[in-house]
Amino acid sequence: MKGEPIISIKNLVKCYGNNSVLKGIDLDVHRGEIIGYIGPNGAGKSTTVKIMLGLVKDFEGDVKIFGNDIRDGSVEYKKKIGYVPEVPDIYDNLTAKEYSEFIGVVYGMDKKEVEEKTLKLMSVFGIEDAYTSRIESYSKGMKQKFLIACSMIHDPDILFLDEPISGLDANSVMVFKEVLTKLADMGKTVFYSSHIMDVVEKISNRIILLNDGVVAADGTFEELKRVNHEESLENIFTDITGVNNHSSKADAFVSAVKGE
Ligand SMILES: Nc1ncnc2c1ncn2[C@@H]1O[C@H](COP(=O)(O)OP(=O)(O)OP(=O)(O)O)[C@@H](O)[C@H]1O
């Protein structure tokens, strides 16, 4: 599985004004890895992903993807990347047909190929009948399934998935989890950012926990369990992020609701 890293991050630092979000991240990711990228709200997970995608440019440190420094200005590497954003910025007055054609053009794909692929991908999720409907008329889950389909129409080598199963029903989640495993077996790399610990625990072959601007844990689930003497990722997360007063926080919330 090893060899040259497909993503190489050295001493990545990112500040928003006085807010120091990433304080020196070092990370090598290899082909076929499914990285579960976790951390508390605001830890900088989306920021890291956006830097790798070239969407956030003002950072310190080195980021190489497929061996190329992303500062070089080349957009070629982006053709080999698929992305499901946490908050989709989708033109939802378009139909799925129109939107996927637009995406296909960006990736330099043939229109017919885009249509065939989009319909096949949508039909796996049972939403192909909505192909010519406006995306704004979709349910939350339908929209998410369509975004997942769009992220893969160009057969990317790296997938960045930010809370990808949000809104998906249990059957669709099962299909999607298997899809990821099969893609990783083919040598694709998956960067999976989520707060749903039991899914991360099951699908990832490596888990990276970001806390307070640094990588606080990095290893397989088995390794993290051994080092942290815990049986679940949820408990490992709680131990490392140092929040163990859940019950008193809940009491304070309920008191506030009651106006106490
Ligand atoms: N465009 C921006 N301008 C200013 N601050 C930002 C911007 N984007 C993110 N931040 C700040 O950077 C920090 C990290 O945000 P980020 O979205 O990367 O966290 P995250 O780990 O993905 O969180 P979540 O789990 O809540 O999605 C937060 O403090 C956030 O307020």
Describe the structure in your own words:
- By secondary structure, the protein is α/β, with parallel strands linked by helices.
- Helices cover 38% and strands 23% of the residues.
- It contains nine helices and ten strands.
- It has helices at residues 45-52, 96-106, 111-124, 140-152, 170-185, 197-203, 221-228, 233-241, 246-257, and strands at 7-16, 19-29, 34-38, 60-65, 68-69, 81-84, 158-162, 189-193, 206-211, 214-219.
- A six-stranded mixed β-sheet has the order 6-7-8-3-9-10, with helices on both faces.
- Strand 9 and strand 10 form a beta hairpin.
- The chain binds adenosine-5'-triphosphate.
Work out the count of structural domains: 1
Write down the Rg: 19 Å
Low-confidence stretches: none
Number of strands: 10
Shape estimate: globular
Give the strand order of the largest sheet, numbering strands 1, 2, ... along the chain. Answer: 6-7-8-3-9-10
GO molecular function, one term: ATP hydrolysis activity
Protein name: ABC transporter ATP-binding protein
InterPro entries: AAA+_ATPase (IPR003593), ABC_transporter-like_ATP-bd (IPR003439), ABC_transporter-like_CS (IPR017871), P-loop_NTPase (IPR027417)
Keywords: ATP-binding, Nucleotide-binding
